[in-house]
Amino acid sequence: MRILITGANGFLGKKLSVKLLEQGHELYLLVRSRKRLDAFMQGEARPFSNQIHILEGDVTEEHLGLNRELVDSLKGKIDALYHSAALLSFDERDRDKTFEVNVGGTENVLKLALELNCPKVLYISTAYTVGTEIAGAEALYSAERQFVNPYEASKCEAEHLVYSFRDKLDIVILRPGIIIGDSRSGEADTNFGLYGFLKGIKILKKRSMRKQDGRTCRIYLDPEVAQNFVPVNYVIDTLNAALIHGVNGGIYNITNPNPPLQSDIYEIVKEVLDFSQLEMCVPGSSAEMTNEEKAFHESMSIFHSYFQRTIDFPSDNTEKLLAAAGVPMLQMDREALTRIIAGYLLNKTSVSS
Ligand SMILES: NC(=O)c1ccc[n+]([C@@H]2O[C@H](COP(=O)([O-])OP(=O)(O)OC[C@H]3O[C@@H](n4cnc5c(N)ncnc54)[C@H](OP(=O)(O)O)[C@@H]3O)[C@@H](O)[C@H]2O)c1
Q: Rounded CA gap, 212 and 101, in Å?
């Protein structure tokens, strides 16, 4: 098949591209900068260079910034489009830009798909369009609900937009949980989600070691709360299955049916980092924090809402999708999680400060 991918230079975009290239598909990779794709083109993508067309563009522009001649030449040529490009900022100050890229950009992508007569659009959303609730569904959420940040709100609005095109195109909405590294190698090329937390812990350890006072370093997290981590290779297998088996209007939670508890994550981090002073305390404890602990918790403030709730994400649609494709459902054991966490924490280049 001939497949267009937006966000092709991202964490997910590159992994998805490799999977599709290995299957023999011909890809049109939309990237903002051809130069930034160089490392990928000279690395993992090298054996497949004759299957790749690079399109320089920007989803916030009409026709994604592609010129008329190019758009005309692509008409009738694209069999499916994965829309993965997004701005992944939780910062309220980025609200306008986040909506411009995530909602305006999605509208431009849908319009282009129509113009190109591309029959199928697979939209990569997020499980966290669930907002501040604790019970998810594999259905559209009301856009009026409360959201933790503009990122969630923008992705929910974009889902509504995608869904409204289901009479004109086959559309599929795919909602990953928190994407972490590869369960087999531990490798991950991202600083998002878990990796922001791990970076914070690594800095906390460095600072506390510098002081050499032997005091415990407390992190205030509810041990019973679960985090919906999904290894990137499982996400890619599901995105790939949806290319053939995803039904029009289908919404798929790509989530972990047995997500790890914060106590599991804490124990693994403590062991991998050999950080014996690290202690997990129930939030709300009255003990005064040290400056290092305060700095850590302040830097984690964007995650507070996620640290406090376990969200239940049903994934029956995904289970059926994967069964049709002959792919097993996720079973992430402690060993795989340890490999992924160690893959980042033991990488010397992962923290510079
Ligand atoms: N990572 C997660 O934990 C997670 C979880 C759930 C859902 N998702 C969703 O998965 C998708 C991919 O995320 P990711 O982790 O791969 O993020 P990422 O590494 O930040 O990739 C996002 C890509 O979008 C591109 N992009 C941003 N603005 C653009 C624009 N205006 N025009 C064209 N391209 C633009 C970026 O291009 P540049 O390379 O030029 O910056 C980047 O390559 C997103 O839709 C995200 O919402 C991610």
A: 46
Sheet bearing 26-31, strands edge to edge:
52-56, 26-31, 2-6, 80-83, 120-124, 170-176, 250-254
Domain tally, the chain:
2
Are residues 118 and 69 part of one domain?
A: yes
Residue 278 domain-assigned? yes
Domain shared by 170 and 33, yes or no? yes
Q: Residue 87: which H helix or E strand, with range?
A: none
- Ligand 1 pocket test, pick from 6, 9, 106, 235 with the greatest ligand atom count within 8 Å of Cβ, gives 9
The DSSP code for 301 is G
Domain that includes residue 284, residue range? 194-227+259-310+333-350
Residue 62 token pair: 């009409």
Q: Is residue 248 domain-resident?
A: no
With beta carbons less than 8 A apart as the criterion, state whether 153 and 147 touch: yes
Does residue 115 sit within a domain? yes
Q: Is 207 helix (H, G, I), strand (E, B) or coil?
A: helix
CATH number of the domain at 57, please.
Answer: 3.40.50.720
Structure tokens at 148: 């933790």
Is the CB of 88 inside a 6 Å radius of any atom of ligand 1? yes
pLDDT of residue 349: 66
Q: What's the pLDDT tens digit per position in 38-76? A: 999 999 999 999 999 999 999 999 999 999 999 999 999
| Ligand 1 pocket, residue 33 CB under 6 Å | yes
| pLDDT category of residue 35 using cuts at 50, 70 and 90 | very high
| Domain membership flag for residue 245 | no
| Smallest CA separation from ligand 1 atom 33, residue | 58
